[in-house]
Amino acid sequence: MSKVEHHLLPNGVEVDYIDETHEYFINGIKYPSITELLKNKFGNQYNNVNPEILKRSSEYGTQVHKEIQSLIEMRDAGIEPFSEIQEVCNYFTYVEPIYNIQPIILEKVVVLYDQNNKPLACGRMDMLCFINNSLGLVDFKTTSSINRKYVTAQLNLYYKAACQSGYIDTDIYYDIQLGVIHLSGTTAKLIPMSKLSDEFYLTFVN
After folding, report:
1. Comparing C-alpha atoms, which of 176, 206, 90 is closest to residue 141?
2. Of 1, 16, 63, 79, which residue is least crowded by CB atoms under 10 Å?
3. Angle between helices 148-164 and 34-42 (to 10 degrees)
């Protein structure tokens, strides 16, 4: 039997997530993921990649992200982070101190709404943090290269959904930094991404 995760969002909405099938439900109704919205607009950026290689790459990326999250939580409890995974070590050794990143929350389910405040899609933002004392929303990537157009769209939809879901008070944080934390082999850096206008968001609504 598939395990169901229950998530209560700051705006009071409850979302059920089935990890095995990557499906999101609100009040028993299934909604597409934000990734599906992006695929519908941009196509599958990994069409030419061997499915087995893609599967291993995705699993490794998930492992890196989960270990970073776990070690951040352990550090908050007073335990010094340690990992044998190079990309994880590089995050703590280089990315956090160089870019002055202070994690706030990680791996939170968000809901994207249309203009009539009806759910449109669901997803998970990777990390809300402070970057040099300014609020930032970042996504972890372990691929060898970054598709800037796709990732810019992805981050902007996550930002919109995070605001609508109650994670970001836009009256206080009217400006926010978006970026990708790129961890691949010896690569360890924060890549800033552009914040787009609502006109961009509306292309996914209409």
Report:
1. 90
2. 1
3. 140
Report the distance separating Cα 143 and Cα 60, nearest Å.
10
Q: Cα-flanking dihedrals φ and ψ of residue 176, to 5°?
A: -145, 145
Tokens describing residue 22: 């990557």
Calculate the alpha carbon distances from 118 to 9, 97, 173 in Å.
15, 40, 24
pLDDT for 134-172, tens place per residue? 999 999 999 988 999 999 999 999 999 999 999 999 888
Q: Report the alpha-carbon distance of residue 138 to residue 191 in Å, rounded.
A: 9
Cα–Cα distance, 153 to 69 (Å, whole number): 24
For 22-47, letters b (16+ CB in 10 Å) and e give ebbeeeeeebbbbeebbeeeeeeeee
Q: Phi and psi dihedrals of 126, rounded to 5?
A: -75, -55
Structure tokens given for 195? 């914040």
The residues facing 184 across adjacent strands are: 187
User: Angle of helix 34-42 relative to helix 198-205, nearest 10 degrees?
Assistant: 90
Closest Cα to residue 15, out of 105, 110, 106?
Answer: 110
Q: Is the pLDDT of residue 197 over 90?
A: no
For residue 136, give both structure tokens.
């930032």
